[in-house]
Amino acid sequence: MAHPNSTSEPAGARRNRSRTGSVILLVLMTLLLTAFALTKYLEKASVDLLADAREARADRLRVQAYSALETVLAVLQEFRTTNGALRSPAEGWGNALEFAGYAPPEGLTVEAALEDESAKIPLPHADFQALRDLFLLFGQKQSDAEQLADALLVWIQQGYEPANSFSARATDYERAAIPHDPPARSLHSFAELASIQFVRDRLYDKNGRPNDLWRNFVDSVSLFDFSQPNINTARVTTLAALGTYDEASVKMITDYLGGLGSYARQGPAYFRNAQEVAGLVGQAAASARLGTQVRCLRINVTVHEGQGSFRVSAVVTAPGGAQLPPPDQPTTGQTSTSSAAANDVTAAQNTSNSGDGSAAATTTTTSPTNATNPTQSALNYPFTLLEIRENDEIVDNAPSSLSAPR
What we know:
The protein is an alpha+beta fold. 40% of the residues lie in helices and 9% in strands.
């Protein structure tokens, strides 16, 4: 029996309240899902907008980088026309953008650094003596230096017979896990060093990473094909290995070029010909293997805008100065010369190593110097582009402690 003061809630009211609570819960869940979806959409939209903004900025900086590169090339051509050749930054073209009065758009900072690639030993023309002396300069024992030189030349030259009887021969590659023959042409990439017998044991550590000997070697040789390194910018290793200069002569040359020591008052100088070299170090010490002209020049341009930047690196040469490494030898009689040249370009497009020293290849835009190019001929462009890299494709090799002072 019900209490006289109690009131019972009608069943309809309870159902209405339950229905109202369900509707509110449904609305709240809908709002939650909508908010979640909207948040994800905004996150994705912000990422897409950021990516588009970065791409647009990269395109804008890229245009400025190539504009600065063309300015540098114009200055170089002016000096080359006036002086007959490029010899040394001491001529006045070392800071080409400043010389040209180049002013980037507001908010941008542009830097251009020039490096004479022909200051190094050209690997396509290196012989046993030069390579052996180079490794001796790096502190290798006589026997190891000879075996390293032999191993490289076995890989590079067709039918090469090692000077050291303990050195590996071309036939040793036939007993590899995957039998193969050495390519019998100069390196297209420093990554190939990891495939050369004995060289890979000395230039890489136990984990397969390049060591200091690898970095010194890479910093001292050039993969590009030119006849004479430039004594005006030559590294100590180039002077000692190719010029066969002793320590006193090397110091005299570097002091003269850098305006150091007893030449401090005259400032940086340069040699115009071999006779001037002989006049400084003596006729007997003059080396016919070294020239006095820039054969191959690397131009690094960096454009900064706030925290962002764009880099382009180009290797250029004047007509007759340098060219890409020789192509692979045809494997069959049906392989045409044009096909071999095409293979050369493809191989040269992979001439880089990762920044931490590992052997990883990146794409490079190259232009063979010996190919017929109607467009270039019509433009009468004063330089040939051997290589162009952008941003992450650019590899900065660790500087060697044996580099000559600049």
